[in-house]
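Quick start: read one record
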Amino acid sequence: MTETTDSGRTAVIVEDDAELRHLLVDVLEAAGFSTVSVGNGIDGIQAVLSYQPLITTLDVNMPGIDGIEAARRIRAHSDTYIVMITAMGDEADVVLGLTAGADEYITKPFRPREFRARIEAMLRRGRAAGTSPTAPVRTQESAGPSFPVARAAASAPAPSDPVVVAPTSGPQTGPQPEAAFGEERGAVDASASDGQWLTHRNLRLDLDSRIVLIDGAEVDLTRTEFDLLAALLESRRRVRSKADLTLLLRGESYVTTYFVGDADKRAVEAHMTNLRRKIGDNPAQPRFIETVRGVGYRLTSEVTPPPA
């Protein structure tokens, strides 16, 4: 394990390929992070538990405990931002990684500037209510690293940037966590909050406290699931396309499909599946979110049509 840490922002890099590991260290340290880099998943999970980093990068395809399993174990104990790194074309890995609790994914080969832009966009999102105790809490307005990189970098990487070639594979394993992070949640008194509530049927969402309630009981959502639900509640019956939701999750305010591919759309589908499961919504007979086939998603009508 190599490490360069201070009391500021920390990133844990779990990567078995030494060349790629060193590159990620250089990029993140240049962006103002202190880093802890390890070569396998066991050490990676232990590093996350020990350092409570703001960001953790995980390679997906590794011997032993792969990145998917490492993400599951990390997510059970930490609210660190998890970035999965996967080989180009392994779209199934993207879906599995997001289901396991990852916040973002990067496909190889990639350019360092693209990596930095993706991290910047990810950190612009708000954090969930149950953040890791030592990780800085970022609101929707304040979230974001001090990267000296423009938003346009996400869609136009500099030609001079070296391309990171996908390494063969690498081990990533992690020690078993000891206690579950944020276990059961009880009912919440919505009247006790002064936040901005959005409602649909018996579902309520507070943009300020990032709390979601169904019939007064709190629902535990990830950052991304909360952001998707908030976007749909704000849009009401207006359809939000998968490309549109992808850009929203990246924090991009301009309209472009340059960087929105099939893997991005499948990632939105995976997040939406998780969201629907947590709020008890059946896609076949939706109460909250309906799919507009071939387009995207929108809220259901407030009025339930009578049976035919």
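The chain has a mean pLDDT of 74.
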